[in-house]
Design brief:
CATH topology: Neuraminidase
Order of helices and strands: EEEEEEEEEEEEE
CATH superfamily: TolB, C-terminal domain
CATH class: Mainly Beta
Helix content: under 10%
Largest sheet: 4 strands, antiparallel
């Protein structure tokens, strides 16, 4: 099965393809930078791709690790990227290489920026499934229940 390599566009309620194919590799996070360009991260690699409004690739940066899920772009152009595979957060400052600013986070998913507290808020998807002793999960007490994710805050 081919991996998804497409970003859609829905201007005025009509859907179309914004970007299709390489360099997309399971694109996941999307945000706007201060200039209004579209920033996309891939789960399939560590690329942080910036497209202009006409879908032209204008910049390629790289987070420290692959498996990217969450993306935040600040007003100064600093990008924060979570790796759900490796449990880390990379920071990419304009003109600088990426650096890991947090690690050991259980499956950090999407994140947001709390400007009032100047911190990232990252939900952790610590999923633990229960199953019955018979090997199935139907009818087992608590079967299929997940623990609720707890947000983690990281001051910037």
């Amino acid at each position: 099965m081919a991996l998804p390599r497409r970003i859609g566009n829905v201007p005025d309620g009509k859907s179309s393809i914004f970007v299709n194919g390489a360099p997309l590799a399971q694109p996941n996070g999307v945000a706007l930078d201060p200039a209004g360009n579209i920033v996309v991260i891939n789960i399939g690699d560590n690329a942080v791709l910036t497209f202009d409004k006409s879908a032209k690739l204008i910049k390629t940066e790289h987070s420290n690790q692959s498996g990217n899920d969450g993306l935040v772009v600040l007003a100064d152009g600093t990008k924060y990227v979570t790796s759900v595979r490796f449990g880390s957060v990379s920071r990419i400052r304009p003109g600088k290489d990426a650096e890991i600013i947090a690690s050991g986070i259980p499956s950090p998913a999407s994140m947001c920026y709390d400007s009032r507290q100047n911190q990232l808020v990252i939900p952790m998807t610590t999923t633990r499934w229960r199953s019955s002793s018979s090997g199935g999960n139907s009818g087992a007490r608590g079967a299929g229940r997940r623990r609720s994710p707890r947000p983690r805050r990281h001051d910037l």
